[in-house]
């Protein structure tokens, strides 16, 4: 009998019930971070090259080749390796990692040594902006670690602490600290750190990330706020300070990574008004994810028109706001000439100059 091939929709697939820790991620080459996609009968989708899978390092690597994309690239492998799995069995998920709330509270201090907050305090905020900034640091539960890194806690709609991201910033520039190879210095996950010192047990449990600020979105106080979603936690804090409607009519949330826009993560807020602000180089990816996953939201890219080459391809909406905050009158005049050709022509014709 000829081997049966699937046509039409892909068969239902179970993902990584078990992980082979000897496999390296095809992109970053690291061990113990790569998970393959499996059929429900335990057979890997790509048993030879192991390319159909996902890396845990969503921020620093981002490798993810789901079955649909894998089969599009390798149509010759679009067949089940066994004919025994006509009926797919749903794999039971592992329990979720949860961190005690008192550990969050323990980090909400010593802001004078917090590298991110120290940088924030160097900026020329207005009184209203400074008030919103201080409120954001408190309400988003921004934490401080022993080495002065910031801890971005991920707390879900049920106020369960799922994990936290430890990041070290340059207190003078506000940029992430990196080594000569461009790798982040001081980055770590809260659940990993706490597990190593025996504070929590993560064996037999799985990490399920949530949006940064999700605990606020679920709060009755903000039930009528429109939800504005950016990539980085830093941007969510900055936009809360910049936006005069923040914490009254708007709430800023963060995915925590370019590849973290997922229907599962957005599930608690799908019925709310959602506006997405991808980074400048992430517009196409977020558009693709919205289409593939059926995410109904408004995609805001108007701010990109205000960017300049110096902002870089990885610029986001907060970078534009920061640049404008720090602009001198001279730089504002030069931007006006750059952005507006008629004014530039008029200025050249009449020899108009900025009066200091």
What's the short story on this structure?
With about 350 residues, the chain is an alpha/beta fold. It is built from 12 helices and 11 strands.
Descriptive tags:
single chain; 356 residues; alpha/beta; four-stranded parallel sheet; 12 helices; 11 strands; globular
Describe, in plain words, how this protein is organized in 3D:
The protein has 356 residues and is of the alpha/beta class. The protein is built from twelve helices and eleven strands. It has a four-stranded antiparallel β-sheet with strand order 4-5-6-7. A four-stranded parallel β-sheet has the order 9-8-10-11. Strands 1-2-3 form a three-stranded antiparallel β-sheet, with no helix packed on it. Helix 9 (283-293) links the parallel strand 10 and strand 11. Helix 4 (127-139) runs antiparallel to helix 7 (233-242). The chain is globular, with a radius of gyration of 23 Å. The protein starts with 13 loop residues before the first strand and ends in a 6-residue tail after the last helix.
The oligomeric status of these chains comes to single chain
Across the major sheet, the strand order is 4-5-6-7
Outline type? globular
The amount of helix comes to: 25-40%
Mean pLDDT: 83
Main sheet attributes: strand count, strand direction, barrel closure = 4 strands, antiparallel
- Give the SSE string: EEEHHHHEEEEHHEHEHEHEHHH
The number of strands is 11
Q: From the alpha-carbon coordinates, what is the Rg to the nearest angstrom?
A: 23 Å
Total helical elements: 12
Give unreliable regions as ranges: 1-18, 82-90
In angstroms, what separates the terminal alpha carbons?
A: 87 Å
User: What structural class do helix, strand and pairing data support?
Assistant: alpha/beta
Q: Could you tell me the strand content as a percent range?
A: 5-15%
């Amino acid at each position: 009998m000829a081997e049966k091939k699937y046509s039409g929709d892909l068969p239902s697939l179970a993902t990584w019930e078990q992980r082979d820790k000897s496999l390296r991620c095809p992109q970053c080459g690291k061990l113990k971070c790569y998970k393959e996609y499996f059929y429900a009968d335990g057979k890997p989708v790509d048993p030879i090259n192991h390319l159909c899978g996902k890396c845990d390092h969503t921020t620093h690597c981002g490798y993810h080749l789901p079955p649909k994309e894998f089969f599009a690239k390798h149509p010759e492998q679009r067949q089940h390796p066994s004919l025994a799995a006509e009926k797919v069995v749903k794999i039971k998920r592992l329990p979720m990692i949860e961190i005690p709330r008192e550990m969050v509270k323990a980090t909400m201090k010593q802001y004078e040594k917090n590298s991110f907050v120290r940088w924030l305090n160097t900026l020329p905020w207005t009184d209203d902006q400074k008030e919103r900034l201080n409120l954001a640091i408190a309400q988003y539960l921004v934490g401080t670690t022993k080495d002065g890194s910031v801890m971005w806690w991920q707390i879900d709609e049920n106020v369960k602490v799922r994990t936290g991201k430890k990041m070290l910033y340059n207190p003078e520039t506000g940029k992430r600290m990196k080594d000569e190879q461009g790798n982040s210095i001081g980055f770590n996950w809260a659940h990993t750190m706490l597990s190593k010192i025996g504070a929590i047990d993560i064996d037999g449990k799985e990490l399920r990330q949530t949006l940064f600020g999700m605990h606020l979105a679920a709060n009755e106080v903000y039930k009528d706020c429109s939800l504005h979603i950016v990539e980085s936690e830093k941007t969510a804090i900055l936009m809360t300070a910049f936006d005069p409607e923040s914490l009254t009519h708007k709430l800023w949330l963060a995915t925590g990574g370019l590849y973290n826009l997922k229907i599962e993560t957005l599930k608690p807020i799908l019925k709310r008004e959602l506006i997405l602000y991808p980074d400048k180089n992430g517009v196409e990816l977020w558009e693709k994810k919205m289409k593939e996953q059926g995410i109904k939201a408004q995609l805001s890219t108007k701010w990109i028109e205000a960017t300049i080459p110096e902002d870089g391809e990885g610029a986001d909406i907060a970078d534009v706001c920061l640049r404008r905050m720090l602009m001198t009158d001279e730089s504002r005049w030069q931007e006006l000439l750059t952005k507006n050709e008629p004014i530039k022509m008029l200025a050249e014709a009449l020899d108009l100059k900025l009066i200091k």
